[in-house]
Design goal:
about 250 residues
């Protein structure tokens, strides 16, 4: 007697993957990971340029800080530090969302890391190397970024003197020395990979060269800004008095 085959629907439902392994949910997770990554990458580029205003002098950085904190809406012209706190909380949530979706592709076993290293050794493809360094930098950022954001949430005061005090007297320079290369590498190469993955730019080699130039440029900009804060911080005496324009 012939056995009636199970309906195709039942067979598919039995073997259908669940969670992020399901093709539909995996595609949605990829889009959310890419969207949150682009948001964070663009924010980093703007953030480093805002910070670099210290290179133009204390007055320039003070005006930029007051503008970002909504100083134009204040009768005194001073910004509202609570805006920095709110924005830091929002960015922390975006970072957590990006990290959750990125961890899906993170090697969790020693054997997977060995296989990746062997592939990089015998097939030295540049995009594979970029993906590897994105994983390494992403692992570091998982610990470094929350520390930076928690600092801004608990101590949102921004200014030439107050920021320099944080860098020098609170030893934040140690955090920034680790954070700057990790976040710059992760962000710039992340924007490159998103552009290639979603077909936004077809000239992959030209885009990769641009990414490397941007990486070098942002590193120089970030290091120069950090050195400026250190120089200002060392010139201050405790207790540090907030910067006042014209004095």
């Amino acid at each position: 007697m012939a056995v009636n085959p199970l309906p195709a629907k039942n067979i598919l439902s039995r073997y259908t993957a669940k969670g992020f392994s399901h093709p539909i949910w995996a595609a949605r997770a990829d889009r959310l990971q890419s969207a949150s990554g682009v948001l964070l990458g663009l924010f980093l580029i703007m953030h480093l340029h805002f910070e670099s205003s210290i290179l133009l002098g204390k007055e320039a950085f003070y005006q930029v800080a007051q503008f970002l904190e909504g100083g134009i809406f204040s009768e005194t012209g001073h910004g509202f530090p609570i805006l920095t706190q709110i924005f830091s909380v929002v960015m922390l949530l975006v970072v957590l969302i990006h990290a959750v979706f990125a961890l899906r592709r993170f090697p969790t076993q020693i054997g997977q890391w060995r296989a990746l290293r062997q592939q990089m050794k015998f097939l030295p493809h540049e995009d594979t190397k970029i993906w590897f360094w994105q994983m390494v930098s992403g692992f570091l950022l998982f610990f470094l970024v929350p520390v930076h954001l928690f600092t801004m949430i608990t101590n949102p005061e921004i200014g030439p003197h107050l920021s320099a005090e944080r860098v020098v007297y609170q030893n934040a320079w140690v955090l920034y020395v680790l954070l700057l290369p990790a976040v710059t590498i992760h962000a710039i190469f992340g924007l490159y990979r998103v552009s290639v993955k979603w077909g936004l730019i077809t000239q992959r080699f030209a885009l990769l060269k641009l990414a490397k130039v941007m990486l070098a440029y942002l590193m120089v900009l970030g290091v120069a800004s950090l050195v400026a804060y250190i120089i200002i911080g060392r010139s201050l005496s405790l207790p540090v008095v907030p910067f006042v324009p014209g004095l």
